[in-house]
Design brief:
With about 550 residues, the chain is mostly beta strands. It contains five helices and 41 strands.
Length: about 550
Amino acid sequence: MSGFSIGDVFGKTFLSAETIIGGRSTKKVFNATMTNLSVDGTSVPNTGFKQIISGEQVNGKAAGPNGWAYRKIGAVHGKSNKVSGGKLSSSNANEFFKWSNGTTTGDDKMILYPDDAFNFHPAKGTTAKFKFRYVTNKTSSGSKQSSPYDYVVNIKKESVSIPTAANSSSYPTITGYTKQNASSSASGYADFTMEFDGDQDNDYWSIDMSSRSGSIGQSNFETDGKRFLRVGSKSPESQDIDRVEITLLSIVKNPVSGCKDPDASNYNSNATIDDGSCSFTIASINDFKINKSSMTVGESAKISWELSSGNFSEIQLLQDGTNIMPAGLKTAQNSDTEVSPAVGDHKYQLKVLWNKPNVTPKTSSEKNLNVQSAASYVQCTDPNRNKNANGECASCKSGYYLDSATDLCSQCNDPLRQKKSNGECGDCISGYSEKNGQCAKEGCTTDGDYNFDPEAVVHNESMCGGTPATGGNGGTGGTGGTGDGTGGTGGTGGTDGTGDGELIEVLPEDDGDAISSQVEPEEADLSKWILPGIGVLAVGAIILMR
């Protein structure tokens, strides 16, 4: 009757494992040691091969099928299928761990007799190690083959037999071959040790003592991708093998390469071998500042910082390149401290370190602090200037401005200029204009003009009055009469000149000649020449009456 087999593996949740060691005593119950083998964080207790194939549970998850110990098994005992649901019941499992006389072999040594068959596929992520012993009972006659070696030597991979492979470094998973020929006083055996890697999909072992199962090989072993089969497909029973003893030696968690550092961004919780692939993201400097840019010696300034995370091992505060961070703040993610440096210009930076491989420190931008000496204060002597708390000159008082030439607070003292609200000189006052940076008097600078201003510097045409015209010459008076006779007619005076000049008519003296003269006054006055004209006319009338 064919055995039963089960499918895919479950064991991807292993965290770690080392060794299950099988006992060799035929009487003593020996549970294999499960060191650091855990399922979902729960350690696998010490247990035996028998408990494993009967589906022992850890943290609610069985050893198999698809469990933490095996992917699948197949089992036939006494021509009966003993597998139910991918595992054996406890009573069925017990049948594989008894000698022919009914005594138990221990929990780690399975015995296959004629009509028994079994196969085993290890769980993913594990390597199971077994010892196989092919046994021929002692003989009292030559009816049975005396050397199990003759059977085992014909389990081959191509031309390489198991005994040869066990002694070759080319087959590291096959070791420990020994043999003993059967005799009348002792059984004969040939044994070897073989490892089966669950991460190699086809690694397994399979033994069918009597070719009863159609799915369990007679003596098939695949390890490290290399398959060994019995030449001629002959069952152990057909070649005088009385039994095969199978001892579980160990189940080892396969090493997993990866980053084992929990602080790394690519941490692998399943890794058992650190492959140097860890990568780390150091904390960023979110904020770094100083609360002042200058101060007097003896004062203090506050420096504060804030980091993005705890991914660092030390913070340094550099003052002019030297670390001055207080010991108690070297691991403070967010904090502040005060500094009181000596006189001079100082530069501050924050430096973040992380003692992880291939991590570049983070450094902030520089912050500057100027420290002045207290003796450097100059007392202000400018009466027109305000003073600060240190007695130094501050801003100008109201109505004053800072003269860049003298560095004093001043006011405009030019009487010819207007004054601004801050005391500076403004535009020239009325009647004055800017010339060569000075305010100069405006006026008529035209010589001879009525409004000519000899003090004016800036000519203003609108202030000129014009130039006066010149008057004409008076005419010659007529000749007077002679003796007592009738006086002659006086001559006609010349035509008055045109213009603004004042004409004054002067009466003729004894010679009777009319004399005309012209006087140029400052302003023309018509009354001054009209009245003398009337007088002349009166004199002429008297002469005619005579």
